[in-house]
């Protein structure tokens, strides 16, 4: 009995250690933007119609952190081991009624399993380690090349002068 208990404790300690090492290795390497950066966010629908575009100055480090700074957007996301992924984006404005301020949605793009769509994240960053090379490659928009991100938005760094694109895409 003592041997089984010892092995169970040993295996538990090893599992916890392995988990801690894995989590430390997966921690995003995000920049210190305390001095401020300027970034542009564009939202496109399936046929690349521009639904939203805004330049923003921020001290945030990741694309996910900056979403709250765009008051005209509401973003639905899901977490995974490579960071948060976007499920949908609502575009609207803050209005007020008898109950106070509320978000009035005007447009929405949303990934949907039944019609084989998802929200793809693209950027114009020079760092090739942030680009997906598995099949959803770059897009051309407004005379520029944007690269498919291999990171979720919580691990995608904000770099001064960069443009980030959220686009409804299809894998069908």
Largest sheet: 6 strands, mixed
Low-confidence stretches: 6-27
Tally of separate helices: 2
Under CATH, the topology is which? Ferric Hydroxamate Uptake Protein, Chain A, domain 1
Helical fraction: 10-25%
Total strands: 9
- Taking all Cα atoms into account, the compactness measure Rg is 20 Å
Task: Write down the overall geometry.
Answer: globular
Give, in order, the helices and strands.
HEEHEEEEEEE
Instruction: State the end-to-end CA separation.
Output: 56 Å
CATH class: Mainly Beta
Strand content: 35-45%
Number of domains: 1
Mean pLDDT: 84
CATH architecture: Beta Complex
- How are strands sequenced across the largest beta sheet? 2-1-9-6-8-7
Helices and strands: which structural class?
alpha+beta
Structure description:
- The chain is α+β, with helices and mostly antiparallel strands and 172 residues long.
- The protein has a single domain (37-170), classed as Ferric Hydroxamate Uptake Protein, Chain A, domain 1 (Beta Complex), CATH 2.170.130.
- It has two helices and nine strands, in the order αββαβββββββ.
- The protein has helices spanning 2-26, 63-66, and strands spanning 37-44, 50-58, 73-80, 83-97, 100-110, 117-123, 139-141, 144-148, 163-170.
- The strands form two sheets. A six-stranded mixed beta sheet has the order 2-1-9-6-8-7, with no helix packed on it. A three-stranded antiparallel beta sheet has the order 3-4-5, with no helix packed on it.
- The N and C termini lie far apart (56 Å).
- The relative contact order is 0.21.
